[in-house]
Design goal:
25% strand, 33% helix, five-stranded mixed β-sheet, 10 helices, seven-stranded mixed β-sheet, alpha+beta, globular, binds magnesium ion
């Protein structure tokens, strides 16, 4: 069953709010708070090794922070529900926390509560809340807007094959400051967790527009370009935690002038009135990582 059908099945069986207050964006918008939750489960999202406990802690916080980044929200509080295997020690718990601490400190995140239970495998379910006066929704893109990507593509997928890129997969960098800056110019955003095409597909669906992409513009590191799979990693690989932005043409120059981050900001295409996704003029499916 596709993940998104599962979500629909569950949500439609319950009283629920509509996006942006309810399910359907990177975070729920509750007043001026954006709230997101995400789980990391041993054997599904990571194995030990190659992950250390510090890697697991880092990644759990990073993936949730990335969802706040995609809303243009400033991180504030978090809750943490831990499922710990029998025999998990205090020392191991400190190692897990040590992997989270740098990100929590860097982004001003205060732990506000949580839960610990015994579990057959290690699992971490985090809920993060951040402030955004004008959150970036998936539904804000308009035909004619320019499509930008913040960050590099394909590195995490490459990390499953190329040892040099393995850290990109274990230690993603959430682009929080970049999301906050982008929120002053962009009208829509999403983070690339399941692959560029699939995540862009969510924006197209929510905004009822299409998009044209140019392969030659995709931000790929030179070391990746030598590999035949590079384009596929960039389009469908997932776990890059880059940000996709829709930026109205008359704000694009101001965004590029304001950009001070070392993380690249790259224009890769245009949103169109015609539905569907086109890569170099050819139609492509909005598919990527399948969770189920
Ligand atoms: Mg997301």
């Amino acid at each position: 069953v596709p993940e998104f059908d599962l979500i629909d099945t569950f949500v439609s069986a319950l009283p629920h709010a509509r996006a942006p207050k309810g399910p359907g964006d990177d975070a729920a918008v509750l007043g001026e708070l954006c709230v997101t939750t995400d789980a990391l489960v041993e054997g599904v999202h990571f194995t030990r090794p190659p992950f250390t406990l510090a890697d697991v802690g880092h990644k759990a916080l990073a993936t949730n922070l990335s969802d706040l980044a995609a809303m243009g929200a400033k991180p504030a509080w978090w809750l943490c529900a831990l499922g710990l295997p029998r025999g998990f020690t205090a020392r191991q718990l400190r190692e897990l926390a040590a992997g989270m601490r740098p990100l929590a400190r860097a982004h001003g995140l205060q732990l506000a509560g949580g839960n610990v239970s015994q579990s057959p495998v290690l699992s971490l379910t985090l809920t993060l809340a951040g402030h955004a006066k004008k959150p970036l929704l998936r539904s804000g893109a308009r035909a004619g807007d320019l499509l930008y990507v913040v960050g590099w593509l394909g590195e995490a997928a490459a990390g499953r094959t190329l040892p040099a890129f393995a850290p990109a997969q274990r230690r993603p960098t959430p682009l929080v400051a970049e999301g906050l800056l982008a929120a002053r110019f962009a009208t829509a955003a999403i983070d690339v967790s399941d692959g560029l095409l699939q995540d862009l597909g969510h924006v197209l669906h929510a905004s009822r527009v299409g998009a044209r992409l140019e392969a030659a513009r995709l931000p790929l590191r030179r070391e990746l370009l030598r590999h035949r799979a590079a384009l596929d990693w960039a389009l469908r690989g997932g776990e890059d935690y880059a940000l996709l932005l829709a930026v109205p043409g008359n704000r694009a120059a101001a965004l590029e002038r304001a950009w001070k981050s070392r993380t690249p900001l790259t224009r890769i295409g245009t949103f169109t009135r015609a539905p569907g996704l086109h890569l170099d003029g050819e139609p492509v499916e909005a598919t990527g990582f399948q969770h189920f």
